[in-house]
Write a structure and sequence with these properties.
This protein has 182 residues and is mainly alpha-helical. The protein contains eight helices and four strands. It is 49% helix and 10% strand.
Length: 182
């Protein structure tokens, strides 16, 4: 079944629930004109339908594999993630001072919703990266650089050690970089 993005429904929510026009009336989000918002929603829908949705089945059947070099993604995933980065889809809600587009985060959320509806497994990489940005105010420049450039988030994996370390929280950083490992 082909993926059909919910552009009309998203536009309704942005207009009537999120009050996007009120945000666009501010100097900070003045670029969020109705024409630009429509172009972003329609472009994200076309990108999701053409690039990410066709990969959903491969992600379910082949899945990513851990290798000594890093995570090996199913065929087509590194190229689709590169298209996501090159298309600027991850920069929509990032500040212009850091290379982002400076548009309201609610519009960036609509893009992530579209990508997630097309391919939830794949959309977790940029979604976790946004979560890392929101939850980590101690390293904003590093996190924004990760969000705007090629890298997906690094995931914290908790593990408990045996013996005298029982009960202590140990974190092991695991890099998840779908843009580089093919």
């Amino acid at each position: 079944m082909p993926f059909n993005p919910a552009v009309r429904e998203q536009r309704f929510v942005l207009d009537h629930v999120a009050q996007l026009a009120d945000l666009a009336a501010s100097e900070r989000f003045a670029d969020a004109t109705p024409d630009l918002v429509d172009a972003v929603l329609e472009g994200a829908g076309a990108f999701a339908a053409g690039e990410w949705a066709p990969l959903a089945r491969a992600g379910d059947t082949d899945g990513p594999k851990w290798t000594p070099e890093g995570v090996k993604m199913p065929a087509g995933y590194p190229e689709a993630y590169r298209a996501y980065v090159d298309g600027g889809w991850g920069t929509i809600g990032a500040p212009g001072d850091f290379g982002g587009q400076g548009l309201p985060f609610v519009l960036a959320s609509a893009v992530l919703e579209t990508l997630g509806a097309a391919n939830m497994g794949f959309a977790l990489a940029p979604t976790l990266t946004v979560g890392d940005h929101i939850g980590d105010h101690g390293r904003p420049i590093e996190v924004l650089r990760r969000r705007i450039n090629q890298r997906a988030v690094q995931v914290d994996r908790h593990r408990a050690l045996s013996g005298r370390d029982i009960g202590r929280d140990h974190r092991q950083r695991i890099a998840v970089d779908v843009a580089i490992v093919s």
